[in-house]
């Protein structure tokens, strides 16, 4: 035990959180693991509900053995009580050494001595005219629907964006029998080829990517730009786009999946007081840590919530963060040298991915005024530009004046594009307009969750 | 209510590709009887019957979820009685009474 009363808390039970918890448990520390899922695994190794019958091979493809191993390690540790698993629980806020958690039983406060944040990533989204329509989903969401529910949301699907998930989701949908009409990648082929030397840090993965791409055949188009999603009252009817040669194209569809690689989920790191730096490679603000994942003040970060290294990188980073935590507690920690070397190689590959599939800054800067940027509250690119004109180009000022980033998603899906539009209007780079700060609650909570439970509910003790 | 002819088969958005042998679950949507399967989320169950979960508060369009991982908050649906539910992370249960519009006393 930590010996100080309050436990070590791990937030997130994906590959990073699971390996962190395992490492702590192996050293005799019993962590509390808070996770939003019903069953541990995270997003990429997400498990369907009980009673579903597809095999791990069908669900996770070549990564099936890794998924099965992670699930088994965690389930065994939770069953034997070596970790204290709190599923279906969201951290709403943190401060003064405690987390405010909303779980199946309502809200509770969990004090912590040390905190490992393994909060993962979400789709990185760029607005496209029409993307607020029902029937438009994130690529990650499209994959979750297939994996966790065995379904999709259309009979003729267009996937658009960039990054490894674009190709992967397309292949998975095709395998499952869905009709994928087109896979539209904003990354030019030249950029992808130029990144090959970095991508060869993981030759097996690079080859797998090439093979998947080949399986898409003529559906795949590189170097495109998206004009708009045409919609009727029910949802998408077509995607209008330009191909790499500048020709106008149009693909009929009734569902669109969008995503430009991933963005780190950093809201809790923000509330924990972590410092952030703008990272050019990933075109996003990322928390600052040492190589082990130490952010200071007893806070550690691991996995895609720190750097988008993917699932293998997350497992390594989870072990490292736990090792740092143990060392800081004065306990014997596993040797980190081999994991640090692995992390360097995975980092080189991940940067290659980021270079091959860049953030579509130019496309965003050229968005027509009427484009909805904030899906939550319908703030348009034109309104945002006007706000910059009278309020100046500082992200948090534009947020309070123009309400971009204020909606119920807490800016997760408009923040990066919003910053890009502000920078464009001011004639600067995205790094110089500042970072939109996160605020509590990180997830919306019903009002009742904040009220004293006894009050007004006589006899409900 | 969202969409016309919502009782007609295929009026929803969901196209099931696998896992179709599960036990049926019955629930009510805007007062009409609907069927889903055990293990479906509320989002799956509703979108198997109608094309959207709710109307946007800020625009004319319906909303049908977006991230499916509890991050975007696009998918909150009303119940006849009780709190709103985040449809992508709540399993459907026998007898749920869901609404695609706020119950009368909310507006
Ligand atoms: S679809 Fe995003 S929170 Fe449910």
Automatic annotation (TrEMBL), chain A:
Residues 8-306 form the FAD/NAD(P)-binding domain. Keywords: Oxidoreductase. Coiled coil: none annotated. Gene3D superfamilies: BFD-like [2Fe-2S]-binding domain, FAD/NAD(P)-binding domain. GO terms for molecular function: oxidoreductase activity. InterPro entries: BFD-like_2Fe2S-bd_dom, BFD-like_2Fe2S-bd_dom_sf, FAD/NAD-bd_sf, FAD/NAD-binding_dom, Metab_Enz_Cyan_OpOx_G3PDH, Opine_Oxase_asu/HCN_bsu. Residues 372-423 form the BFD-like [2Fe-2S]-binding domain. It comes from the Bacteria. PANTHER family: ANAEROBIC GLYCEROL-3-PHOSPHATE DEHYDROGENASE SUBUNIT B (PTHR42949). This is NADPH-dependent 2,4-dienoyl-CoA reductase, sulfur reductase. It comes from Tistlia consotensis USBA 355.
From TrEMBL, chain B:
It comes from the Bacteria. Pfam families: Fer2_4 (PF13510). InterPro entries: 2Fe-2S-bd_N, 2Fe-2S_ferredoxin-like_sf. GO terms for molecular function: iron-sulfur cluster binding; oxidoreductase activity. The keyword Oxidoreductase applies. Keywords: Oxidoreductase. This is 2Fe-2S iron-sulfur cluster binding domain-containing protein.
